[in-house]
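Hey, quick one: can you model this chain's 3D structure?
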Amino acid sequence: MGISLPRGTRDFNSSEAILLKKITWVAEETFKAFGFSPIETPAIETLETLNAKAYGEESEKEIYLLEGKEEGLRYDFTVPLARYMAMNKDIPLPFKRYQIGKIWRMDEPQYMRSRELIQADVDVVGSEEPISDAESIAAVALALDRIGLKNYKILINSRKILDLVLEHFGVPQGSQGAAIRAIDKLEKMGSNDVLALLKKAGMKPKQAEEMLNFMQEKGNTAETLSRVETLAEKSIGDIQNLKEIIRLLGNYEILGEIAIDLSLARGLDYYTGGIWEFVVFDGEKRLPTIAAGGRYNNLLSLYSKNSTPAVGTSLGVSRVFEIMKNGEPLRSYARIHIAYIKEENLEYAMHVANMLRAAGIYTDLGLTKRNLTKQLEYANSMKIKYVGILGNQEREANKVKLRDMVSGEEELLEVEDLIAKLKSR
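Sure thing. Here's the predicted structure for all 425 residues.
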């Protein structure tokens, strides 16, 4: 039997790992710019925490159980945050936190769906204002803009508006959770299969079909909200809240399009207000959601006596990676490779490399006794743009011969001038 990886996991080679780290670094820098503070929680949580009613039956089946079945691996960062807040009651509110790391889900592995995932989350705890929703959405959207992901779209809805639509079309009160989970599968399963699930949830076939048609009818934001307003006056406040979130998002110069989608459900049971998903299209084909979130005002009350408003957005780093991985690979962080000719020039090469590193320039130093041709081939294979060539003449002159591996141009420079040149590019 050969060596293998567990199902739903994978290795990342150097170029892939560099891209992953770029995505997480840009996300973290963006979150910090928005004033979010980091926390770290354990990968392991008790099942009492993970099995809170907020998840629902389908999510419970996806939890990785550890031996003894009293603990499991975290499924997301939201429930651990709720547990953390319950255990740390002295935190000043509103608390703006971010967390980036791995989560695990016992999913059936498929395209863009693994069992080990990397996520980057932002959440605001302690504010009911629409600006909190807007900040959590915008922080993720601007991170995507800075990462360079193009043509994403932000779909937005409200759980309260969705509840209103379900009620209007005759979904039995006790079956709304099942109906929401059915609607959440609309993109993956299609209308016919979802209609079957809605009938199973207690809806009459004609009403179920009318409801899906209502949800999927095309129109701009104003037209869509106008249709919802005709259903019941009691939802006006919820509609105004959604309008305000969308209006506030207009202040961030987000590159992605924002659109209301009445069929957006977000299957997890803990959402109480606005909900959203970030999607990308490959031609006409919609790819799996790359980021999502919403308001979950009741989740924290499952872990403490206090009911504290909260909202957040989760960025699927692993899915963004899958979309962007076919770009030009970068195999090393090094800006320059120091190649030396003859062993007597090793210590001078070390001196130059250390000066470059002290100046903040990522520098790779030759570690073998290869000839110059082989060292240049190595630098080229590692996609390192510059090579500093050091021989007896360069050492005696206290200089470096700089070669641009793209253009082939060479120039002889003082080390200080080399540093200034690399910093200027």
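One thing worth noting: The mean pLDDT is 90.
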